[in-house]
Design a protein that fits this description.
With 263 residues, the chain is of the alpha+beta class. The chain folds into 3 domains: 59 residues, no CATH class; 41 residues; 94 residues, Chitinase A, domain 3, CATH 3.10.50. It has 10 helices and 6 strands, in the order αββααααβαααβαββα. The strands form 2 sheets. It has a 4-stranded antiparallel sheet with strand order 4-3-6-5. It has a two-stranded antiparallel sheet with strand order 1-2. A hairpin with a 2-residue loop joins β1 and β2.
């Protein structure tokens, strides 16, 4: 009986040890030279692969685990050789640390300042109004001086053909070979006063005065017009949301910069 009584507690102890140990081992995918590789790291990488279209399979998890083990082996060797004490490496590590912190701050800010559907709709309506409802097929002639442009306008009034003058006189080489053809576009795509002049023209008309830009002087002709097909709110929502988030973040960052004491 004595030997039996001694055996029973030991027998009961094995399940107890296993129950205590299992959660510890479950937390680690592996232990490399005494240092754990957390299972949470494997889960995080697998999640990224799944988001990219791969399936969560034992084979994928085994490959991720092996990659993390190899990485840990190499990190330990680098630490053994004191690679972290090299000035250039220290600087790179510090730069990465700071970048990670800034990205974390940005994520936190975005999560706490979501863009509402109403804000997206308001911006969408503004963009749509700015675009207008007409798209233009445009040709232009670009010359260096206002006098050159006025001379070409006089030739056009005398019956010269716009495309032939563009090929002969325009200093915008890529479009000159096409008779000045700029393709289809809306006024907002161009800087003023080019955009303003374009919006006033109808099909078949050309500008009656030289239009100055940073490149020289233009004569614009509207070859054709058509109804502008503006993308739907649903199509533009992701881009608009991102743009509004960026604006909010930039405003927040600039406010912090203003408050900072910089000497």
């Amino acid at each position: 009986m004595t030997s039996i009584t001694r055996f029973i507690p030991r027998f009961l102890l094995f399940p107890l040890i296993a129950a205590i140990s299992l959660p510890v081992f479950a937390q680690n995918a592996a232990v490399v030279n005494g240092k754990p590789v957390p299972a949470s790291q494997v889960d995080a990488f697998v999640k990224e692969f799944v988001q990219q279209g791969q399936q969560d399979t034992p084979k994928l998890r085994a490959a991720v685990t092996e990659s993390l083990i190899m990485n840990e082996v190499l990190v330990q060797e680098a630490e053994k050789k004191k690679m972290g004490a090299i000035p250039a490496v220290k600087m790179q590590m510090e730069t990465m640390r700071r970048n990670i912190l800034v990205r974390a701050l940005m994520r936190d800010f975005v999560e706490k300042h979501p863009i509402s559907d109403a804000e997206v709709k308001k911006e969408y309506d503004r963009m749509k109004a700015q675009m207008g409802d007409t798209e233009y097929k445009i040709s232009h002639i670009l010359v260096k001086t206002e006098d050159d442009a006025k001379a070409l306008l006089a030739q056009l009034k005398d019956g010269a053909k716009f495309d032939e003058l563009a090929k002969e006189k325009s200093i915008d080489a890529p479009t000159a070979t096409r008779g000045g053809d700029l393709g289809w576009g809306a006024p907002h795509a161009y800087a003023d006063p080019f955009a303003q002049a374009l919006a006033r023209l109808k099909k078949g008309e050309y500008s009656q005065a030289p239009i100055q830009s940073a490149r020289g002087y233009h004569i614009i002709m509207v070859e054709d017009t058509r109804q502008l097909k503006f993308p739907s709110l649903e199509d533009l929502k992701p881009a608009i949301t991102q743009e509004l988030q960026d604006q909010l973040w930039n405003t927040y960052a600039k406010a912090l910069r203003v408050k900072a004491r910089v000497k």
